[in-house]
Amino acid sequence: MIKDSLIYDFFAHPMRIYYIFAGILAIFGALVLIFRIGDFISFHQFIFLELFCAAAFCGFLFTAVPDWANYKKSLMSYSISGFLILILALISQILGFNGHIFIAIFWSFLALVVSFWLILGKNYDNFALIFLLFSITLVEILGLFYGLNSYALLHCYVAGIILIGFRVSMTLGNLALDKKFGKDNNTYTFIPNPILKNISFLSIITLAYATLLNLNLETQGFIAFGAGLITLSLLAQWHYKFFLSVHYTLIYYILLLGSGILYSAFGLNLLLGLDFSSKILHGITIWTLLGFVFFIFNVSSLRHSGQVVLNLPICGKMGLGFLFIAVISRVFLSDFWDSFYITVPAIFVGLVFLMFSGRYFIIYKNNPFTDDPK
């Protein structure tokens, strides 16, 4: 691989290859749904819940963890290895073999590599992250024997988003403070509430295990409702005019708000014995999972492409609106017209990641990778 080539740059800085790959997978998944390709129900689930999320988490962790652990060696071998495993998973599934085996191998690989880097760097502050990665690995391995519990997997991912979102929110808050007071004159530091973050993480990961263990629906509903309320409580720290007037903190706020409402609704649905679980869980998948992943893709990509003053491109702002339409279509309108059930949400989700992949491929191509400006 030639050192000054674009492909070398992408694999040397895993965020770039994995984010673009995740974007392409999302587009592919949307096309599978729109054109009803093969067993499109299970195939789109495999693409979005397993391949896409694996690529998204790997892209972020292979960029952030070496920084947290002060790991300075080349990431190329790790980057290529993980990518090949995901390609094998995709090809296996397309050819009718069991691609889940490679997904289980991938999460085992990711959990071990991240643990190795953190231990090597004597960074023992990320127990929750390690626990999360091995929890996802456990869900995947159990899925090989008993069938994948996709909802437990979804809740694991959301728990991961709470962890990653905590660090991202710290950056966003401090950038907003710099914007208001001026970087040189700002004497304030934004530190999001770690206790609320921990309770939120614990409640959602507990919900994942409750789902995995198939506890009764009332118990799952109680935990989900609590998770929704604690997620809503995270909003209080953003209730300042200047936070709500800056686009990136406002987007983060809206994503949290929607997530809290959806989890609360999911909990109430189970507690009251209603029949809206599938709709709400799809809402959580589109809004919380895809929404936060898309937003973090934008923020981390810009921060690692030399942009000191954060300003999301128009596609980054439009994406949230498109995902909102997809959620409204799938959750509220799907009873009125068949296309609102699959086609319309798939089109808007596909458009979000089509815009992302196109715009950020150009950004990556034209801007060298940089460390996160502190």
| Total count of strands | 0
| Low-confidence parts | none
The average pLDDT score comes to 95
Structural class: mainly alpha
Percentage beta strand? under 5%
Task: Tell me, briefly, the overall form.
Answer: globular
Q: Provide the gyration radius in Å.
A: 20 Å
Describe the main β-sheet briefly. none
Quaternary organisation? single chain
| Helix proportion range | over 70%
Calculate the terminal CA-CA distance, rounded to whole Å.
Answer: 32 Å
H and E order:
HHHHHHHHHHHHHHH
Helix segment count? Answer: 15
Secondary-structure blueprint:
Blueprint: H1 6-12, H2 14-34, H3 40-68, H4 76-94, H5 100-120, H6 127-146, H7 150-181, H8 194-212, H9 217-233, H10 241-244, H11 247-271, H12 277-303, H13 314-333, H14 338-341, H15 343-366
Helix pairs in contact: 1-2, 2-3, 2-15, 3-4, 3-5, 4-5, 5-6, 6-7, 7-8, 7-12, 8-9, 9-11, 11-12, 12-13, 12-15, 13-15
How would you portray this structure in words?
- This protein has 15 helices and no strands.
- It has 374 residues and is mainly α.
- The chain is globular, with a radius of gyration of 20 Å.
- It starts with 5 loop residues before the first helix and ends in an 8-residue tail after the last helix.
- The mean pLDDT is 95.
